[in-house]
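Hi all, long-time lurker, first post. I run a small reading group and we've been trying to get comfortable going from sequence to structure in the token notation. Rather than ask abstract questions, I figured I'd post a concrete chain and ask someone more experienced to write out its structure so we can walk through it together at our next meeting. Sequence below, copied exactly:
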Amino acid sequence: MSISIVASLACRRDAASVLSAELRRLVKASQQEDGCINCRVYQSQDEPSHFFIEEEWVDDTVLKKHRQTQHYKYFTHISPALLDGPADIKVHKRFN
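-- Answer (accepted) --
Happy to help. Here is the structure in token form:
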């Protein structure tokens, strides 16, 4: 059963361009990982400081490996300085 991550992030008003670039870098690296089914980032048209990430991973083991990668650790290290509060992250398991 695959694992889906849905994350909503709101950045500080002056950080949208930096966060956008960092999210692109994170997604590009994540898409190259074994076991990544899908990884996409979206920016709200109405509120440019709001971003949405959707990811799908083969299973929990692959997701745990992803969370140990250098690009993931780097993003989680820098993101608090860019965000206007904690990300809202939901983890779902596909059952079909």
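A couple of things your group might point at:
The CA atoms of residues 22 and 78 lie 9 Å apart.
The chain has a mean pLDDT of 96.
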